From TrEMBL:
Residues 48-100 form the (S)-ureidoglycine aminohydrolase cupin domain. This is (S)-ureidoglycine aminohydrolase cupin domain-containing protein. Residues 178-200 are annotated as: Disordered. It comes from the Eukaryota. The lineage of its organism: Eukaryota, Haptista, Haptophyta, Prymnesiophyceae, Prymnesiales. It comes from Chrysochromulina tobinii. Pfam families: Cupin_3.
Amino acid sequence: MAHLYKFVPAASVTDEFKEMATQWPIWDSKVAPMQETENKFHFDYDGDYGSERVLITAGVATLTPDDGSPAVELTVGDSVHLHFGFGATWTIHNPVEMAYGYFDKDGKKIEQDEISCDVCGTDCYEESYLFNDEEDICPTCFKADQNGSEEYEGAVYCREGKPSKELPKSLTKKRITSSLGGSAKKKAKGDYVPGMDDDE
């Protein structure tokens, strides 16, 4: 593998991959909380997985790797496999929607329970807050409460459904807790998916 990512142009994306992606959560740049500017954000792929694979379903974006690898423009139908340890800056040219799934280092699909915000209903698997061990709050709704009643004080910050020791820089420690102990209410489990090999 020459790079920590693998670009698959739309013409080469298999029907099997497209069908599998219909079962995945959708990330939408219009509501994503991680944007640093109006159209650009940086992301490190360092979660509990071997790779994240995405299928662009709307919009246009440029992915610029941190390691100096060539930037790639992604449009509808394109796919990219982002391996653990990869870091890049996403530049959104037209609002992007992408289906995403996680795979272990052996190419087995990691089945994740979807996590939806109990306030607005948006997908928040990648980043959420667990309040009173039962209520999932997306970053947008949690942030909206910052200057209000502070209803969610004491919520646990989670990444991919698990408590995270990293705290978001923009929020105070008073309002959220972070712990490696305890358990999140949603766990991931492995499931083999044939024909998915990232060794190219």
